[in-house]
Design a protein that fits this description.
This protein has seven helices and five strands. It is α+β, with helices and mostly antiparallel strands. Helix 1 (about 5-20) packs across helix 3 (about 40-60) and helix 2 packs antiparallel against helix 3 (about 40-60). It starts with a helix and ends in a 10-residue tail after the last helix. The model is unreliable at about 60-65, about 190-200 and about 205 (pLDDT under 50). It comes from Oncorhynchus mykiss. It holds the Pfam family VPS9. This is VPS9 domain-containing protein.
């Protein structure tokens, strides 16, 4: 049987063998951008373990035991934990006033999500132009921005303001989950599978 003390060296070995240089940056992004409520329990444990493993890899010394973190790495983790714990009531990225989480929904490739910089006064038409650029869409005239809930799918008018819509929804008590989706406008010549038309595939990438 292996215990918790064996997990860090094993994780370090696996990450070293994976040859994923971008992982270090992704871990730092998650540590700073994830909602603090998601950093408790197993999620926080595995994230800090991954950070510790990357710290060992970057500062590897053959004579150093693989399970021993440097004092600098331990201090960094302690400081991060104190800072992020103090922000437990902070909103998630999606709640920030100038950020909007939008998904591109395609018939063949499913959903891809991006967090976009969208000001409160930006119109849906402007958000669609931004989505066209960010998602590299070649036929923007056939796409539109939709507000998806568990029961409805509503195409937003060009002169509406997505950030204001988001703020209004959040202001209601017990507001239902919702998503902004940039996708093709349904028409008689385009057959969209039912499970994608009603937005069910969004569960794979949101929250």
């Amino acid at each position: 049987m292996y215990g918790a003390d064996d997990f860090l060296p094993m994780l370090t070995y696996v990450l070293a063998q994976c040859d994923m240089p971008q992982l270090d940056t992704e871990i730092l992004y998650m540590m700073e951008l994830l909602d603090p409520s998601l950093l408790h329990g197993e999620g926080g444990y595995y994230l800090t373990s991954a950070y510790g493993a990357m710290a060992l890899i970057k500062n590897f010394q053959e004579e150093q035991a693989a399970r021993v973190l440097s004092s600098e790495a331990r201090d960094t983790l302690h400081q991060w934990h104190r800072r992020r714990t103090a922000q437990r009531t902070a909103p998630s990225v999606d709640d920030f006033q100038n950020y909007l989480r939008v998904a591109l929904q395609e018939v063949n490739s499913g959903c891809t999500a991006k967090t976009l910089l969208v000001h409160p006064y930006s119109t849906t038409e402007e958000v669609c132009s931004l989505c066209t650029y960010k998602f590299n869409v070649h036929d923007p005239e056939n796409h539109a921005l939709f507000l998806i809930t568990e029961a409805t799918s509503q195409q937003l008018a060009p002169d509406t303001h997505p950030q204001r819509i988001k703020a209004e929804i959040h202001s209601h008590p017990n507001s239902q989950p919702f998503h902004f989706v940039y996708r093709r406008v349904p028409n008689l010549n385009l057959c969209i599978p039912a499970n994608q038309h009603n937005g069910n595939c969004l569960a794979n990438w949101m929250n």
